[in-house]
Amino acid sequence: MVSLGVDDISNTIIVSAPESLLENISELIEQLDRAARPTNSVQVVKLDSKINSTELQKRLQKIFTKPPQKPQQQKPQQPQQPQQQPQEQPEEQIFLP
Asked: How far apart are CA 53 and CA 59, in angstroms?
């Protein structure tokens, strides 16, 4: 059985799984981390003289600007139900930042 937890504050995934699966899970997480890294490349595009650069800039800003976030309404807290104990204890746990 595999169990995953996420700690948003420390940007950490907590994995509980049999030792035989931990290496594969660790490699998968590292691949996802590498794929999510931002690229620092710049590409220069020469504009045709018929293109209005000011209008293009406005449209690009509109595309790449995130809309303002709406404040989230808090839901009333519900009592937590006791969690079921796992039937089988995992062999090892790893913490990946």
From this structure: 10
Can you tell me the distance from the alpha carbon of 21 to that of 34, in angstroms, rounded to the nearest whole number?
A: 20
d(CA 50, CA 12): 50
Helix (H) or strand (E) run with residue 78 in it:
none
C-alpha span between 25 and 29 (Å, rounded): 6
Q: Which residues neighbour 5 within 8 Å (Cβ) at sequence distance 6 or greater?
A: 13, 14, 15, 16
pLDDT in tens, 3-27: 999 998 998 899 999 999 999 999 9
Nearest to residue 5, comparing CAs of 74, 94, 89, 81?
Answer: 94
Query: Which pTM was predicted?
Result: 0.40
